[in-house]
Specification:
This protein has 714 residues and is an alpha+beta fold. The strands form 7 sheets. Strands 2-1-5-15-16 form a 5-stranded mixed β-sheet. A 5-stranded antiparallel β-sheet has the order 7-6-20-19-18, sandwiched between helices. A hairpin with a 7-residue loop joins strand 15 and strand 16. Helix 10 crosses helix 12 and helix 16 packs antiparallel against helix 23. The longest helix is centred in the N-terminal third of the chain and has 42 residues.
Amino acid sequence: MTKSGRKSPRLVAEKRYKKPTGKSAKTHASTSRKKSAKPRRRAARPPRKGLIGFFQRVVGWFLRLFWKITWRVGALASIILGLAVGYVFSTLPDASALLDGRAKGSVTLMDREGEVFAWRGDQFGGVVTASTVSPHLRNAVVAIEDKRFYRHFGLSPRGIASAVKINLSEGRGPLSGHGGSTITQQTAKLLCLGVEYEADAWESEAEYVRDCRRGSISRKAKEAVYALAMELKYTKDEILSIYLNRAYMGAGAYGVEAAAQRYFGKAAATVTPQEGAMLAGLLTAPTRLAPTTNLERSQDRAATVLRLMNEQGYLSDAETRAAQANPATLSQAAQAQAGGYFADWVMESGPEFFTRDTTEDVIIRTTLDQRMQRAAEEALDWVFENKVREGSEAQAAIVVMSADGAVRAMVGGRKSQVVGAFNRATMAKRQTGSTFKPFVYATALELGHHYDSTVVDEPYCMDIPGSGRWCPTNFDKKYRGLVSLQQALRQSLNVPAVKVSEAMGRDLVRQIATDFGIDNELADGPALALGASESTLLEMTGAYAGILNGGSSVTPYGLIDLKLRGEETPLMGTGGGIGERVIQEAAARELTWMMYNVVHGGTGSRAKLPDREAAGKTGTTQAARDAWFLGFTADYVAGVWMGYDDNTPLTGVTGGGLPAEIWRETMVRVNEGIDPKPLPMLRPQPKPQPVQRQPNRPRRDTQFERFLKDLFGR
């Protein structure tokens, strides 16, 4: 039964239990307050309606979808990257196997005294490590190439972002120009990501290198994987050691040891801060910044490296100022860059598998005399500076050799500090002009005539089948009547030379010249006597050396011996020297007497030396396209050629002019400090007799005599 008019009281939970008292009451009250202090859960806001709500729901859906895809793709990419790095890691060899990566070996050339004067091929000074090189060099490389090298994991996101920013600001593509590569990435690139060079797989080694240096996105990705694998496989110092050994440092030097030896003549372990900075500065552009190319530019780059070393704490302010005030300079050998033409000639004339295509490190001892080389270069420079009009493009070449054919100096053009340039001393075949005449008179002397045998200098014509009438004339258009052979050679008369050649027989003249070493196709017609044939300066100088040595042929040579680095026994020796006798010694001595008179009172008087006897012969070709002077003292033979590469005629130049002066300036310097010796001449006084065809004479055991026997069957 309900009570009307009365409200039933609410049933409260506390009333179902006994009210707590004392300490338990306080605890209960505290707990109640905590529970009552807990904020209530906010009710979910109802989704907005209308257009804004629609767009909110769409954006939210895309964000949730993007997140789901991103973390899944990221996880998959991480797995793939890990597998790729693991695979590359498993293929990496031991670090020691990667220190020398050259496809070819090097050639070191030494002069006759055993001093290094040139390098060729891929120069490698030996294996070094990051701990054995000079600390200054190691610090310089890190400072300029990758200052966070010891802190990153192989890649530098900060460096890449900075490089992309610089490239874009300079109007280039993001990967063009600055690369932001770490030393680890650069080492990976030097290793070509593990792809070794195979000659059969590439058009050339240069093509292989270009492929290794490509900067595409896919290539960069592979490079990053390889760099990460290297960081796992090797220590930081091992990576840096590979880099220091394989990096190209200019001038054919691979690795810091070869570069230190090449530029400073010392080991990489002993370089100073300024030298280390210069070497490190080469890594950006080794060919352009090489100190042998432009020392000042290389020093400027080194100053920047020193500043960075100071900023990064590798050098104190005082050390930096001292190093910048005394920049690195080249060693004497690197400064001289001596004998570039000579070195190229030796490389070309040596066996290909030990010179141009060697896979070993080779040392070649040569005949070069650096003092004489400097003498020839200085003489050429002096004459062109003081005697030749400014702006002239005329060229000149010089060869100096001993009487046995050992080449002591070689200048192949006006620019002396060169590598791989056109060598006018060995490559240019030019008409020899009157320098050929001594071989005409050598034939006559060998056949029994003498310096005072006579011939008539007069107008002279010949009918040449297929060419018509040919009438040689003297240079001055004058005729002198009856003249001796000595006078004809001294005044370089053309008509007597042709007459003697025809009287002796062209075949015999040609044979004498060939036996003396003029190894070219000689002219068939009567113009043979006037030097219509072509030859090189080296061949002509070698032929004149045969006259000086008493009539024996010589083969010009520059290589004394060749051996592998570290070996004591040479693999090969001299490939030239004195050969068979061509004419009798008496004939050679008499010819020397005739050529002595060319210098002392003849067309070559401007070549006369102040303190010693000299013999020689001038030569000027048709229209003065070539001018020659060849001659010798008792000790050395020298040849000079002058002309234009495009056969433009010389203006006002003959063999007795500027070439004779170049020869004189060269030989004055070459013979400096050498006691004068008389020329090995004979001065017989036989009775004059007219020139006749092939007079009877005693048989002589010469190469020319054997030719006569074969020719005439007796």
